[in-house]
Structures are given as structure tokens and as C-alpha cells.
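Hi there, hope your week has been kind to you so far. No rush at all, and the record is pasted right below.
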Amino acid sequence: MPDQSLNRFLDRVNSIAVIGLGYTGLPLALKLAEKFSVIGYDCNPIRIQQLQEGYDSNQELELNLVPELLPTFTSNQLQLTHASVYIIAVPTPVDDSHLPDLRFLKEAVEQIGKFLKKGDCVVVESTVYPGCTEEFCVPLLEKISGLQLGKDFSIGYSPERINPGDSVHHIGAVIKLVAASDPATLRLMTQLYQQVTMAGVYACASIKIAEAAKLTENIQRDVNIALLNELSAVYEKLGIDPGAVWAAAATKWNFLPFRPGLAGGHCISVDPYYLINAIQEQGGNASLVEESRRINEEMVSRIAAQVLSHIQTTIPGEDKKRVLIMGASFKPDVRDVRNSKPVELAKLLMSSNIEVELIDPLVDAQHLEKESGLGLISQPTGYYQVVIIAVNHTLFKELEESYFCNCTSDTSLVIDLTGMYRRVISNRKYWTI
């Protein structure tokens, strides 16, 4: 139960505003709305209309709840004037040069600055580089609002730990990190987020520590995937089956269960660059982090080279070359195609005059076409020289070998980047990592 300080805090809170209603903001807004008055703000009016109608286009959450327990969904900035706590949950991608792209964060901070009042609190959940909250967000807030941090308003940081497609590690089941500009705000944030998660809240010693912790979580995954990607190439050259190596090594109790593959999406293929850029601006480097990013980024080219090698050695020069890619999202059982490596692979193969078709029963075809210019098919069309299983969607796991035999010939190659068919496919040439 909230203590007296939280009760006093809530007495002067008109509402909590969550800025950005994507994979991070929406579940947070819904959870907060169970206990507090919540404004769910997104600048996309189509997204707001869908949420008002009870539809989540990400298909991550059910909105058929008691109306009184839902946030007030809006794309009207003026609604933000009613809030006293502002939680920012907008994307923080990188640009084409892999530099931090803070335009969405900047827009959110500028919007809040227009309505910030004495006694208000701003919390950032977006992934940022160490120092961003205090060195980038605070000056903007002070400039636009005319208020002063510490005297008029406070700020905190609580990095999101949303894992799309994961029904186990949902927002109410994971520990929440919190950090704040002063001890009183840290206590209030701790008590506030305790109403959101049953797993508990961990108070960090500083905002920079919390920012760095978030980066570290995803960098660790990126480095481990890069290690397996490199080892898979090494073992292949040595004539050793990589999949058999992983299975044998996994019998040791402390072997980490990572797999090689395409490391895309909006976390592990983005977050390391925030740290890389931050340390480079200080004249240093993060060599292991940089090398891991290089290895993982080159995986698309490695897979494409395997496809081209097979086609060049088995298909006459003038014959039509066709490839089927199964999976267009960046990870299993999600619809999100941001930084999708299967999409990147498709475009690379198409640049070599190969006809590429994609199948993904989860991804919205119109959204994919708008984002990438690529279309989707629902079923294989004819025969392919190469079939690439790029994402291990649960729906794909139900397929039998006949599915692949029916859309390939005896000379075709099945590339399984998931490893889930290594004991299933025996009547076609099979390659995995």
C-alpha cells in the first residue's frame, strides 16, 4: 500500500501522462490505469483511434477491459496540461550513420515543457546514453517551461524492460529500475512503480547508472550473439556441425543459451551504438562492443553469400532465380519490422536480380509495404532454389518437411537460421548456423 508521502503526492496529482503508446508505453499506461488516472498520449491519431476502439495493432495486449480502468487515449497535446507526472516512452533509434537519433525524445520533452508546472515530475523510460536525461532533457525542459530542476520540478529515469512476444516477462513480472534527481523523488518513484510490478523495484544510485544498466542489458545479448555467429563460421570452416556443438556445450550447467542468428530490432541492434557514440565523444572506444556490432551486422551479407553461392553452382545463368524468406519481423512471434534483418536480406538479394518472396502470418502486409516497399504472400508460389527460415515463429514450428519439399526441387537449398528443422529436413540440402 502507498505510504503517507505517496498519498500526499497523489493528492496533488491530477493525472499521470504516458507519452508514446507503442510496445513500451501502452502496457505501462494500462497497468498504471488500474491504480491511477492516466492520460495515454500519442502523436499518431490513427493509433489513438484504434486504441479508443479497443484494438492494439501490435497485437500484444487485450483492451477489452472495464472502461473505468483504461487510460484516456488522446493525440491532443492540450490534454497534457492536466498531468502532474509525465512518463516518456518514445522510440530512440539511430540514424543511417548509427548515431543516436533523439528527435522523438526531443519532441516529447518539448511538448511536456509547454505544460510543466511547479511540483511536476518527468520520468524518462526511453533507452538513452548515460547522461542524456540530465544533460539533454533537463536543459530543454528548463528552457521551454521557464522552471528550474530541483526548485520547481524533478526528473527521474526508469528504463523499460518490455520484451515483445513474451507473455511471461510482462511489465508486472519484472523488476523495475528507478533513479531520480533527488532522494525524495526517488522514494516517490519507487512507491509509484511498486504499484505497477509485483517483482519489485531496484533503486539505482544515480540516473547515469540506470541509463548505463539498460544499455548493458542489451549489449550483453548483442556480444553473446556475435560470439556464436563468429564461432558458427569458424566451426563450419573446420568441417564441424555448429548445431551439434551448441547441443553438446549446452549440457554444461553454466553455458548461456544464446543462438547465432540475425540480430535486428530496436534494442540489441540499436542500443550498443548509444554507448559507442558516448565513449567516442570522450575520446575513448568500446572495442568489443564495436566488434560485436560489426559481426552481427555482417550476418546478412554472410547469408546472402551462401544463397548466391548455391544459386551460381546449381542454376544455369539465364534461368529465373527465386528465393522464399519465411519471417519478416525482427524476432519470433511479433509483428514489429523495425530494423528487420530478414527485410534487409530480401533487399540485398533482390539487388542481385533474384526474385524474393516473403511469408509472415503475423506481419501486417500494408504496414510492411509502407515501411519497406516489400510485399507478403500467404502461401508459396511455385518452386524456389532457396528457402530461408529466418524467424522461428511458433506457427512455423508446426510445418513438416513436406511443406518445404512441395515448394522446392531436389537441387534446392533450405537455409535454417533458427536451427529448429535440423532433425526434420533430410530430403533437401540443408544449411544452418
About this structure: The chain has a mean pLDDT of 92. The CA atoms of residues 86 and 297 lie 36 Å apart. The longest helix spans residues 207-237. The radius of gyration is 24 Å.
